[in-house]
Structure formats: C-alpha cells, structure tokens
Amino acid sequence: MRLRDSEALLRAKRYSGAYYLAGYAVECALKACISKQTKRYAFPPDRDLAGKIYTHNIQQIAEIAKSPVDQESQADPQFGIYWAVVKDWNERSRYEKQGRTKAKEIHTAITEPQHGVLQCIERYW
C-alpha cells in the first residue's frame, strides 16, 4: 500500500513524499517478516524486543527480522548497491526536501525486478 502511494507521489512530482513512503514500505515489509515469526496476536514477540521493533531504523529491523539482506548483498553486488540506498532511509526524511533523483533512486532500489530490496524481503514474509 505504501509503495503504491509512493508511486502516485512520484507521478505527481511530489518527490519528498515519494521518498519517505518508499522507505516506509520497506520498514513495513520487514515488520511483516517479524510478525510472521510470531503466533497470532503475539506481536511483538516478547517484551525485550518490543523496544527494538518499534523503531524506524531499517538496518536494525532487518536484523531482528532475520532478513538475509547482508548475505544477499554479498552474493549479489547489484542488490548490495540497492540495499545501501535503502538502509540509510530514516523517518526524519519526512521533514527533509528530497529531489527527483533521490526519490527515483530509492524507488528503483526497492522495486527493481531482478535485484530489488522488496523482492528479497517478500521471500521471507
């Protein structure tokens, strides 16, 4: 849903919002991976993880989700380039002006059919 919102904003040339929602789509995807590892109605899985899960730090969420992004980065150099773009996103970007180049760059990094970040994450949710 957030990725479709990001795409609509890209088409409307609303680049800052497109950038923010693209990164948020990855955050949601990683949290879906964490949720899949829990029993129904048991999210977050335990109290110790609660504080770590309710963050917007994509790298930290990927580690908790046991996402294979680090291994994938080593095995696929293009994915590694895309992951480097995505992992630096943060929620504070909603307050920052982003241009067309940066918005398109993160969108491509997420959606590219062969090496995109979302395609990797989807295999684990």
Polypeptide structure, described:
By secondary structure, this protein is an all-alpha fold. The chain has one domain. It has helices spanning 2-11, 15-36, 47-53, 58-64, 69-75, 77-87, 100-111, 117-122. It is globular, with a radius of gyration of 14 Å.
Number of domains: 1
Radius of gyration: 14 Å
Kindly report the average pLDDT value: 87
Molecular shape:
globular
Task: Give, in order, the helices and strands.
Answer: HHHHHHHH
Beta content: under 5%
- Secondary structure: number of strands: 0
Low-confidence stretches: none
Can you lay out the helices and strands and say which pair or pack?
Blueprint: H1 2-11, H2 15-36, H3 47-53, H4 58-64, H5 69-75, H6 77-87, H7 100-111, H8 117-122
Helix pairs in contact: 1-2, 1-7, 2-4, 2-7, 5-6, 6-7
Quick synopsis:
By secondary structure, the protein is an all-alpha fold. It has helices at residues 2-11, 15-36, 47-53, 58-64, 69-75, 77-87, 100-111, 117-122.
Key structural traits:
single chain; 125 residues; mainly alpha; 8 helices; 0% strand
